[in-house]
Amino acid sequence: MSNNYLAGGVNSPIPIPEYYPQNIVRGEGPYVYDKDGSRFVDMWMGYGALLFGHADPDIVKSIKTATEKAFFFSYQTLIEKEYSEEIHNLIPSAEVIRYATTGSDAVAYAIRLARNYTKRNNVLSIKGGYHGAHEGMVSTTGTTIKTPPEFVKFNDPKAVSEKLESGSFACMILEPVLANSGCTPPNEGYLQEIRDICTRTGTVLIFDEVVNGFRMSIGGSQKRFNVTPDLSTFSKAIASGLPLSLIAGKKEIMEHYMPTGKVFFAGTFNGHPLSLSVARTVLKKLKDEKFYEQLDEMGDRFRLEISNLIHEYDLNIAIQGIGSMLTIGFGCKNFNQGITNENFDANAYQEFIKRMARLKILFPPLPTETVFLSPVHQEILEDIIEKTKNTLINMHKENLI
Ligand SMILES: Cc1ncc(COP(=O)(O)O)c(C=O)c1O
Q1: Which segments within 216-258 are labelled E, that is strand?
Q2: pTM attached to this predicted model
Q3: Choices 3.40.50.1110, 2.60.40.1180, 3.40.50.300, 3.90.1150.10: CATH for 7-42+289-397
Q4: Can you tell me the distance from the alpha carbon of 401 to that of 392, in angstroms, rounded to the nearest whole number?
Q5: For the CA of 208, the nearest atom of ligand 1
Q6: 42 lines ligand 1 (CB under 6 A)
């Protein structure tokens, strides 16, 4: 074991169980490899960023080509303009865009913009959601922010309207498909109701598509559900594992950023050309019409098989999701407003992922995280489903679920 000088021994607040590989050195397709050569199926896929799996040859090629041309400049680049046009044509809310580097900075810039634009301070969001590690959104863990965000439950438009009618909220920010509280799709009509309430109360509606975007469709969840927010944030899958994020929005609001407006916006690596060149390759690959069809079919197949098993054995678990995103919730029959401390069985989840890890399949280590499928899982999908079902049946026989 090499020495570890990481603070606390880790580089993330998400604890990785001791029965998971601790020294990943390589990935290929659906697999990750530990330094001793052990191979595991990856069901977490870079928090959803790896739409095409690990080391996709086209992505690798585009990184190599980009590095040969020199890959970082302090001047304006051609690629940042060309890619902005592609995004403008694809994403409904993208009248204009700005690049950032991570999901957290995109959200922080969007909230700052909404506050300045509306001259209001409060931010409304969703219980159990996650919108980054910046001061604007983290209300409890070690921050000293003076105006912490307020939260309502997902899929409850009445609660949103009760808050927003006060006229004191700069913005409402949510993931159209809640992906950080177990994958929870919106109820029919929910997003449109939120849209209407925001319009009525002069509140900026922000869709955080950091996870959703390009997972749900090439135009994001806003295109899939046909509801257009005022601002939206994208990251993760847009550059398939390289650091890139963007804020898309109405020109009238976005022009409040400097230099046309007064809202400060900067970042050395924003719109990094290396990430942008990968992002363009991602778009080219996504234009294959069959891509989302295949992802949807894979997700539907997984959900159907597990859902049939739940009925057959009357298991106290739930399976939810949409397209390539899904979550098995333990200790509840559904989690329409997301997984919370009250409605999930953390012990059962830990037991499940431990048994799956023994079978060399890695589910996300936290029950609130989403499973992300990629076409690279296709060939081994039936095997994954079979092993998942057998594990659940065994746990049921042992009265663990
Ligand atoms: C919906 C959502 N928004 C924002 C973020 C923050 O992104 P990052 O970790 O790149 O800062 C995340 C990260 O998981 C996220 O899931």
Answers
A1: 231-234, 245-249
A2: 0.96
A3: 3.90.1150.10
A4: 8
A5: 1
A6: no
